[in-house]
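Entry type: protein chain
Record version: 2
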Amino acid sequence: MSSLPFIYIKINNAINDRHSSIKDISDIISGDPSLTTRLLRLVNSAFYGFPSKIDTVSRALMAVGTNQIRDLAMATSVLRLFKGIPAGLVSMDSLWRHSVACGVAAKMLATVGLRGANVERFFTAGIIHDIGRLAMYKMMPDAAQEMIFRCRVSNEPLCLVEKEVIGFDHADLGRALAQLWNLPASLEEMIACHHFPLEARQYIVESCIIHIADYVVHSMQLGESGEQYIPPLDNKVCKLTGIPEGALSAISEPLKAEFEDVVRSLWEF
């Protein structure tokens, strides 16, 4: 859990090298058949809705953009980290579905609130917002199981129980991983503040969008992260994003359809 997928590091290094070409980046991605398949499925899904089929990595790079493809590579490669969670905690399938649903919901909400300004980054943030919880499940499964069981009985928020039992919560651990991985500051803050977005210092609107997406996905029961308690949504959060409260119910059916399409594109368990 301490290292980013190596393929992401190679892609990121190539993008940051001014001497690299589209072909160089394409060759790196094409060297990972599993990643290539997932990316091509995704860019040909309803998630993007391109009018004609994109059948090569180089065309995907031209259509979506190198930075967006890099972020998608990172988000989809994180799927591999979901393997190996001890039985009895949370189903890997269910946790993955929750994360994908949060990514899809965040992108849809950002399209409404931010009028389409680089909304792909919200898909990435949604997928990895609970990366700290994944690390917790893998690194300290006994403590995690104890905390989950307590919340199922008491209906307390899991993030608060984490703070009480081990002194930090999964969002704190997620921030530490984001810093270790040298992720963009916006991603770091969206991960760290997805439960308490009003505590964000710089990316408050972005953190609010991830918070709302997490709320919507929990309410719709699209997957499970281990959290049992769904707190009421703070009206201030919706106002800050410019997302009307009515939009939350309006996206439920499109979200279900787009979510299932993306899951089919990325699934490899």
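Comment: The CA atoms of residues 186 and 203 lie 6 Å apart.
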